[in-house]
Amino acid sequence: MVQLYQNGKPRKEIIREYDLTPSSLDKWVSQSQNSGSFKEKENLTDEQKELIELRKRNKQLEMENDILKQAALILGRK
Questions:
Q1: How many domains does the chain have?
Q2: Can you spell out the DSSP letters for 15-64?
């Protein structure tokens, strides 16, 4: 559908013919122009990518902290 649009087929015709919402076609065209990919993961902004990485790092640090707390409890009993 994006290829049809890029080849000059009118937007309204594509939307009508394939029963799309205008926003869907616009999103796909935008993704194709920006990254050449339609995968959400490859179309994230730098801020979204950073937020994902920070959340992963935070979860890792919380797990490490829990392990250290458990180790301190075990060692404190001895």
A1: 2
A2: HHHHT--HHHHHHHHHHHHHTS---GGGG--HHHHHHHHHHHHHHHHHHH
Cα atoms in the Cβ-side hemisphere of radius 13 Å centred on 38 = 9
How do residues 43-61 score in pLDDT, each as one tens digit?
678 898 899 999 999 999 9
Query: Domain of 65?
Result: 44-77
Please check whether residues 48 and 68 belong to one and the same domain.
Answer: yes
pLDDT score of 35 more than 70 = no
Q: Which residue has the higher pLDDT, 71 or 43?
A: 71
- pLDDT band per the 50, 70, 90 thresholds, residue 66: very high
- My answer on whether 1 and 32 are in the same domain is yes
The answer on 34 and 50 residing in a single domain is no
